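Section 4.2 – Deliverable D4.2 (structural model, holo form)

The reporting period included a commitment to supply a predicted holo structure for the target in complex with calcium ion. Inputs used:
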Amino acid sequence: MRVLLVEDDPMIGEAIQGALKDASYAADWVKNGPTALTSLGCQHYDLILLDLGLPGMDGLEVLTTIRAKDNPVPLLVITARDGLDDRLRGLDGGADDYVLKPFEMAELLARMRAVLRRKGGIASPVLSNGTVSLDPATREAVVKTGEPVQLSNREFALLQALLVRPGAILSRSDLEDRIYGWGEEVESNAVEFLIHALRRKLGSAIIKNVRGAGWMVSKSG
Ligand code: CA
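Output (structure tokens):
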């Protein structure tokens, strides 16, 4: 999953970006509204974290601009403003949820998972195609009724990308987009290595190779 973080405070931004990476998200961090809008124009994001108090173009303006373009991307507002008005304007402006500064990183991550579930129309917190299931909260995978298997951050990110839509084929660049943020070096065969590692941990039939197109997990196991 790729997240766009819009936050002008260097310390908060760094802390959030670090926590996002630790939680297996590919995280791109921008510090103002115009750059956020440009980034959205050229990159697919699964979720946006938007600080309301931005210099120049205000966070609310960024939010309404995104929604005015009919972009339904899941969006969580981060705000230091504890006034009810700002929170309501954020939600009415199209935010899916908000967190108040200061917040615990664990709460932010849990709210992100909840928003992603709601917007994805997924009731269960666990992703599954009937054969393999993946718990975004613990980052453990389970094949059928076997023992939980702990995945590395990038193994998790790759399997999650496939399990969000079983049956859909993702190309190498689709997968790289969801695993690596800006400035993260991607080895040319990194995706193959991760798939190899996942098959070793979960069984070779878990991820199917579609020649010339990419990879997928089956729709029902
Ligand atoms: Ca700010």
